[in-house]
Design a protein that fits this description.
By secondary structure, the protein is of the alpha+beta class. Among the domains are: about 90 residues; about 60 residues, SH3 Domains (SH3 type barrels, Roll), CATH 2.30.30.40. Helix content is about 55%, strand content about 15%. It has 9 helices and 9 strands. The chain has a 5-stranded antiparallel β-sheet. It has a two-stranded antiparallel sheet with strand order 1-2. A two-stranded antiparallel sheet has the order 4-5. The longest helix is centred in the C-terminal third of the chain and has 33 residues. The radius of gyration is 23 Å and the shape is globular. It holds the Pfam family TPR_1.
């Protein structure tokens, strides 16, 4: 009887948690892009006065300036990972590495598990000047981040729904089966699926937070001097070059932003020299 009370309580908790995850992902609609080749893209999609097919066609003709303009216009209608990816490719071909990295990063935010986006981002990052050694992370922190980033927010939410359905089935077996073996199976499976439901919702919430609270940026200026204070008279600390990714530590000022590097260094840069991912 005690086991039934415990499972009933946890089931009620999960129902409210799962409802939160579904609400947090309903506002985000992203085009599917299971695999995106380097030079071949998905079928055309009409948005406003231009189509993605026109941008793809311009890219194939090596008319990267036109492709960039078309993709930029498409993104004004709404975010899509495949358009960001194609825009990144166009900027890369046009030798604008900083903006290529910026758009690959934006595509990766929408589809963090896409290997093609990540591969092209790494290629573009290899062209940058600054090579900063990040502060080492504890292995399980890195493992957890890799697991969370293996799927998008929508994918984790769908996993949560699937595991929740399996939890209901397991609960049915536990409460209504007359055979002890099925009751035990239902109870053990219910605990396992409960853990999976909670983790899926936590991971979806984390991905949602990264999408809505974007605190990373890319340096777009050829070079920028990082200063100790938000002023041109501040002490020069070090120089960053275009394409470098930074974390925005203080976003309270309009003209200046305090940033942090992967190795822990901090300083201030003019807002116009960086663009938020």
């Amino acid at each position: 009887m005690m086991m039934k009370k415990i499972l009933f309580f946890t089931l009620s908790l999960v129902m409210s948690t799962n409802s939160f995850a579904q609400d947090s992902t309903d506002t985000l609609q992203v085009d599917s892009m299971a695999a995106v080749p380097q030079a071949e893209f998905s079928a055309a999609k009409q948005q406003g006065n231009v189509t993605k097919a026109e941008g793809d066609s311009a890219y194939m003709r090596n008319d990267y300036a036109s492709a960039i303009q078309i993709y930029e216009n498409l993104l004004k209608q709404g975010e899509a990972a495949e358009v960001y990816y194609n825009l990144g490719n166009s900027y890369y071909k046009a030798d604008d590495i900083a903006k290529a990295i910026l758009n690959y990063e934006r595509a990766l935010l929408l589809q963090p598990g896409n290997a093609d986006i990540r591969a092209n981002l790494e290629i573009a990052q290899s062209k940058t000047i600054d090579k900063v050694v990040p502060v080492p992370e504890i292995f399980f922190v890195s493992w957890a981040k890799s697991l969370i980033n293996s799927l998008s927010v929508d994918a984790w939410a769908k996993c949560g729904v699937v595991f929740f359905i399996l939890l209901l089935i397991s609960s049915y077996l536990f409460f209504f089966s007359k055979q002890i073996i099925w009751k035990k199976t239902g109870f053990i499976a219910g605990i396992v699926f409960l853990i999976f439901v909670v983790l899926s919702n936590v991971f979806a919430s984390q991905q949602k937070s990264e999408l809505t609270n974007r605190n990373s940026a890319i340096v777009l200026s050829p070079s920028v001097t990082v200063r100790s204070t938000p002023s041109e008279s501040g002490t020069s600390l070090f120089i960053l070059h275009e394409g470098h990714k930074v974390e925005i530590k203080d976003n309270s000022m309009r003209e200046w932003k305090e940033i942090r590097l992967e190795d822990g260094k901090v300083g201030w840069v003019p807002s116009a020299t960086i663009e938020v991912i």
